[in-house]
Amino acid sequence: MTKSRIAAVDVGNDSIKAIFGEFDNELNIPNIIARDTEDRPVIGIEELDTKDPLEGIHIRVHSPALKDNNAIYRVGNLATKSDNATELDPGSSKSEEDQTLIMLFATLALDAVSEENSKLFPKSKNVIDANYTLGTGLPLREVKEGKDAGYRSKLVGSVHQVEFLVTPKYQGLKVNIKFDEVKVYPEGFAAYINLVMDNSLKIINKDLIDRRILIQDIGGLSTDIAVIKNRNVDDDKAQGFNLGVSEALEQIREEIRSKHGVELDSRTDVVEIITRKNDRNHIMVKGSRTSVHDITDRILLELAKKQYRLLRNVWAKNSQTEICYFVGGGATVLKEYIKTLNNNLDGYNIEFFEDEKESIWMMANAYYKLIMDYFKKSEKSSKAASEPVKS
Prior knowledge:
Layout: E1 5-11, E2 15-20, E3 25-30, E4 33-35, H1 44-50, E5 57-62, E6 71-75, H2 98-113, E7 123-124, E8 127-138, H3 140-144, H4 147-155, E9 160-164, E10 174-186, H5 187-196, H6 206-209, E11 213-218, E12 223-229, E13 232-233, E14 239-241, H7 246-260, H8 267-275, E15 282-285, E16 288-291, H9 293-317, E17 323-327, H10 329-344, E18 350-352, H11 356-360, H12 362-386
Parallel strand pairs: 1-8, 8-10, 11-17, 17-18
Antiparallel strand pairs: 1-2, 2-3, 4-6, 5-6, 5-9, 7-8, 9-10, 11-12, 12-13, 12-14, 15-16
Helix pairs in contact: 5-12, 7-9, 9-10
């Protein structure tokens, strides 16, 4: 039997963050797809000069979990160059969208075919059989609605095939993906685990463990506010909201297009403009460095006010809260605006992660810790069960 490989995958609305094995592979791919045909035209330089599969992900996906089965897609950076590219829409449920599954399967297949992993899974001709133990998550709102069970059942017990078409290095390879186990965690709970525990699930943040805290996780399409007390997430008081940063990013993209005539490929490009260290909130227009501060400040301040209202309402219902941590990619985008509002208004005890990568990768890291812990425990119990009983 093929050994199962650990995979922790955060299907974020902006991008996919994934960690594999013993932290031996990380992948970050923009969450954007475009329907395509089998024989996409190839520009010579695209294949010869980059030779990076992540720049040319072109796949056919076959899975009983998909509503639209056996379709062909450009994925990630390649999809941004298409006129028909799609990103997840505000109001959609992550657990019910084909796009979530396509991105998940593509990410796992890229791990399975990588040269570093060529000896991990059995390969017959051009077909690789890959087994994974997966840790992933859904917004709190969807978990409360019971959608995690349905999402898990789509994955377990079926074979999901990714066929690489016109993809550098991997063209012609097929990956059959099976799941030995899938754990779907609520995103707020995962953030708490990541805050207080290391990779071995040993407590590293003793100051936090017995405090009453909120964790406001701002994503692309949703916001989760986890309420932590007595070392547990209070499921009744925790809340999920249908409010994320995607709509604001789309609005910024549209206004830059109409005001400056500049077409940005995806929301990821907007995030890069807003958060980069140098030339933040600037774009190039006809070769000239141009500020878009007026657009970004107006739109993001409006969203920050809505996020701040959510904080205020949840804190009012949990008045003995000691601190709120803001996490997720959306928190990185809104950090300065929320800080300014808080300084001018209520002055809550709030904290952001200065290390932007830590905030953006927080969910993937948490899923990794949780699924690795499950994996080790299940290996230990199956080993104990197989040992002969001593008389």
